[in-house]
Design a protein that fits this description.
- The chain is mostly helical.
- The protein has one domain.
- Helix content is 36%, strand content 7%.
- The protein is built from four helices and two strands, in the order αβαβαα.
- Strands 1-2 form a two-stranded parallel ribbon.
- Strand 1, helix 2 and strand 2 form a beta-alpha-beta unit.
- The radius of gyration is 21 Å and the shape is flat.
Length: 83
């Protein structure tokens, strides 16, 4: 049944397009996106978060620059990486 529903959703025009919405009520979100299993980008929700005023590219360096971080790069290039 789920496979049939997925095929039905995929046949809808614009299925592959992810909509972006600024204002979205809970009811519309549930009905249009959750129940329909469609993705949506919701913008503007974090506009008033204090972190957006405090954080900058320099902030992590100032707060955590004394710590070491291990960076893992090119994992996909090595088929034996996980071994």
């Amino acid at each position: 049944m789920v496979d049939n529903l997925q095929q039905l959703w995929q046949s809808a025009p614009g299925f592959a397009v992810v909509e972006k919405r600024e204002q979205l009520s809970r009811d519309e979100f549930v009905e249009r996106y959750v129940r329909a299993c469609r993705p949506v980008g919701i913008t503007g929700l974090a506009r008033d978060w204090p972190a957006l005023k405090r954080w900058s590219p320099q902030d992590p360096k100032q707060r955590f620059g004394h710590l070491e971080a291990e960076v893992q790069a090119e994992r996909q290039a090595d088929p034996q990486y996980e071994v």
